[in-house]
Amino acid sequence: MIGILDILILLFDIIVSIWNAYASGYNIGLLRKNNGGGFNEVASYAGLGFAFAGMAYIIIVVLSYLAYLFSYVTEDTVNFALSFDFLALGVLIIGFGFVITIQSIIIASQRRNFWSILTAIYNGFVELLDIASYVSGFKEAIQVTKGDRKGEGNALVIIIVAVVIEFFIVYAAFKQGYNKARSGMRMDRSR
What is the count of structural domains for the chain? Predict the structure, then answer.
């Protein structure tokens, strides 16, 4: 089932998703202050979409395994939920991740400092891993979702509950970032 490495990856992904939601809120708040737009705004909304898709993906995995662990669902239900999760949210993660990777490359080419270059390299590497993972798991995931649909209803309940939970988590992080940018605006106006 789930090992220590899997748990560490899930925790890391939770942190990244919350950070992406917070940073997107902060960036959108700053862009609104400066009447910004263009690709930076697109990238900020892509970061928010990435946070939503990433957090939903993680929570579906966690809820599926917990429901199975406590014998609320069958293994077929878990397989369906995880395959659907992989197919639907995986493509969103890759799409939003591509926009974020492009933005990080643009920033690295402008700033030319260690952290911006490291971030661009990291984002590019993770994007390639995500694409490779999606391509290699696509056929199997399609077969699971098209095959015997035992437990499909329970899987959809898990997915809906996960999306509701992740919405509140991501929205709270986004709002915190947005409010932080807005409070910075108030301080800037008083100078």
Answer: 1
